[in-house]
Design a protein that fits this description.
By secondary structure, the protein is of the alpha/beta class. Helix content is about 30%, strand content about 15%. The relative contact order is 0.24.
Length: about 300
């Protein structure tokens, strides 16, 4: 039976305080540990021969994960009329991690750009499941679903890209898109590429950074609030536990080495929705119904933050 990718009716998030969000996370945490992914997250390279741009990569169950949502130009907010809702007048930028075609432009994505605290590669290819389902495809699918949910609440939504360019955008441009949109919130969607047995999600928060073109002093607190609310709703909606290898049971991790966060002047977080290299997490990430839950958890957390 094919997956049913049609989203369920949108539901509104109940206000959730930061303390309540963190409590919800801690109550469901499984294990603890440490470690970091590379910039852009999902640092492991795809399996040799895996087609990151293919729309027919098999899932562990042999079914095909289908794309969801209707693409609109990523360079502008949605052109269609939006309903009146609790997020009317708010702007959200969604940053789908990586680009399915990055693998065909390795020279370009390896060019280094300034991230304030140093220089780092423009972008990376991202990771994939053992069966070849690419992180870049996952992030676009969840981003489309998230856009639909937020627009139903009245938000203006912009994507940093929609697989509508040969590669990238580079990490500094991703930050600039959110800044220029004067976004009320920016969420970068990812999936990790860690070791088997490392499971769960985590939300990456910006550290206090000041140097070069980076100054996060005005967004550290608001980004932490956004991240905590997303973490609380994500665990509640998806049933996934916070990471057992990063964040010490909280599902939250603070970093100073990600250009997309360092260069942001608006509240922004990265969300690693799970570990594509672990078979149990991969089974979730390749499930259309779970991806809808992931999008709903993100939407609920964003809505809670913007209404708070």
């Amino acid at each position: 039976m094919p997956y049913d990718d049609s989203p369920p009716p949108t539901r509104r998030a109940r206000p959730l305080s930061v303390a309540a969000a963190l409590a919800a996370v801690c109550l469901t945490a499984a294990g603890c540990g440490g470690g970091q992914a590379a910039d852009g997250a999902g640092a492991a390279s795809p399996r040799p021969g895996a087609d990151a741009a293919s729309s027919t990569a098999p899932t562990p169950t042999g079914k095909q994960p289908e794309p969801s949502g209707t693409a609109s130009p990523s360079g502008s907010a949605s052109a269609k009329p939006l309903p009146k809702g609790p997020l009317t007048g708010r702007t959200v930028v969604i940053d789908p991690g990586h680009n399915p075609r990055n693998r065909d432009h390795t020279r370009e994505i390896n060019e280094k750009v300034d991230i304030g605290t140093g220089r780092k590669e423009c972008d990376t290819t991202g990771t994939s499941t053992d069966d070849g389902y690419a992180e870049a495809r996952f992030t676009l699918d969840v981003s489309h679903r998230l856009r639909t949910l937020l627009e139903a609440e009245g938000a203006r939504v912009r994507l940093t890209h929609d697989a509508d360019r040969p590669f990238g955008p580079c990490i500094d441009e991703r930050a600039r898109i959110g800044n220029e949109a004067k976004a009320d919130a920016v969420v970068s969607v990812h999936a990790d590429g860690s070791a088997v047995g490392n499971r769960g999600f985590h939300v990456i928060l910006p550290a206090g950074v000041k140097g070069g073109g980076a100054d996060t002093s005005k967004i550290v607190k608001s980004s932490a609030d956004l991240g905590a609310r997303i973490a609380g709703h994500f665990v509640r909606t998806t049933g996934s536990a916070p990471s057992n290898y990063i964040g010490g049971n909280t599902g939250l991790d603070t970093r100073n080495d990600l250009g997309g966060l360092n260069l942001s002047t608006v509240p922004k977080v990265f969300v690693e929705c799970g570990n594509m290299r672990d078979p149990k997490d991969a089974a979730l990430l390749t499930s259309a119904s779970w991806r809808q839950k992931a999008a709903q958890g993100l939407a609920d957390g964003i809505t809670s933050y913007l209404k708070g």
